[in-house]
Amino acid sequence: MSEGNLKLTPLNSVHKLLGGKMVDFGGWEMPVQYPTGVIEEHMRTRTAAGLFDVSHMGEIWVEGPDSVAFVNLLTTNDVSKLVDGQAHYSALLNEEGGVIDDLLVYRFSAERLLLVVNAGTTEKDWHWIQSRKGVFDVRLRNASEDYCQIALQGPASLEIASKLTSVDLRSIRYYHFAEGEFAGVESIISRTGYTGEDGFEIYAEAGKANHIWNALMEAGQEHGLVPCGLAARNTLRLEAGMSLYGHELGDDISPLEAGLSWICKIDKGDFIGREALVALRDRGLKRKLVGFEMTGKGIGRDGYDVKCAGRVIGTVSSGSPAPFLKKNIGLAFVESGFEEIGKTIEIDVRGKDVEAVVVPTPFYKRKK
Questions:
Q1: What number is the average pLDDT over the span 88-93?
Q2: Structural domain spans, the chain
Q3: Could you tell me which residue, 115 or 26, shows the higher pLDDT?
Q4: I need a labelling partner for 356 at 20 to 30 A (CA). Which of 32, 66, 104, 211 fits?
């Protein structure tokens, strides 16, 4: 759906009814926050549960005998290691080793894989994937408009979601999924998320979005469930040390620089961008992604210069207050040699150098 130049998710009217403050997010009209406010949305997700509309994400099916081989050539992680009902985090690279997008790969069978990609890059990804098909025996389908995707996140997620399905959610391990009815609708129920909390992402027919959302809100009422917007999604993922495309990842950023060598299975065989990664690894990285915590008074925002002894050594890629941790934190790309934990740096906050320290990531880790 679209209104003017902006695309709308199937839940657009629900967000407006709930008083969501709507903004343009990469060409989509999305709620940045609700009247509850960003801090409350963030804290509820950490302590109870939050509900997120992520229907703007893209879904691309790869089907046919060569599905595993094709997606293994396209992406950095090793698809051949996935079993049915399992998903993993991966990346699409260009020939220079830059990140076209980060994505999730879901294996339904050896001949049926689902790629879940970022909203703002769906069209770019789709054209790239099509252009690489070559002689592979696969059928490609961009089904992004067919699905809604709703993320239920937080410690109360299991209890809330279990009320709406007969699927044994407890048996779904992290980064695994099941198919079954959810709120009476045929769905894919995935134990994944972007907050650092336990939770589920539910994929279903776009036309059933309102029904599933309302069923979840009702089931979560006694558990303190609140709807959450993009602002809380961002602060939650930052506390959890997760990358955001366009910030920690991009066409000119290598996954090695972004600290994602763990999803780059260089020994699996050939994949697009592999040669560039090997060359970069062998000659050494010029910059690295680090976590920092402000020790002086100020917030290190995206794009601010990072300094050491007055010399610019990098740039903040993401920075904000961390509501749960009650600190000002951020991620930054800095010159190699300045990534040591405990190193004192400065962030140029509107012309004033404010002290910060390099810290380990993730900043927040939930108790299992």
A1: 98
A2: 2-56+146-239, 286-359
A3: 115
A4: 32
Residue 1 has pLDDT above 70, yes or no: no
The three-state (H, E, C) secondary structure of the chain, written as one string = CEECCEEECCCHHHHHHCCCEEEEECCEEEEEECCCCHHHHHHHHHHCCEEEECCCCEEEEEECCCHHHHHHHHECCCHHHCCCCEEEEEEEECCCCCEEEEEEEEEEECCEEEEEECHHHHHHHHHHHHHCCCCCCCEEEECHHHEEEEEEECCCHHHHHHCCCCCCHHHCCCCEEEEEEECCEEEEEECCCCCCCCEEEEEEEHHHHHHHHHHHHHHCHHHCCEEECHHHHHHHHHHCCCCCECCCECCCCCCCCCCCHHHCCHHHCCCCCHHHHHHHHHHCCCEEEEEEEECCCCCCCCCCEEEECCEEEEEEEEEEEECCCCEEEEEEEEECCCCCCCCEEEEEECCEEEEEEEECCCCCCCCC
List, in order, residues 6 or more apart from 231 with CB less than 8 Å away: 32, 33, 38, 41
**pTM for this predicted structure:** 0.97
For domain 2-56+146-239, the CATH architecture is 2-Layer Sandwich (3.30)
pLDDT interval class at 2 (50, 70, 90): low
CA distance 215 to 164: 8
- Per the DSSP assignment, residues forming a β-bridge with 320 are 329
CATH 2.40.30.110 fits 286-359, yes or no: yes
Rg value, the chain, Cα: 21
Question: What pLDDT score was predicted for residue 367?
Answer: 85
**For the CA atoms of 263, 266, 271, 273, what is the dihedral angle to 10 degrees?**
80
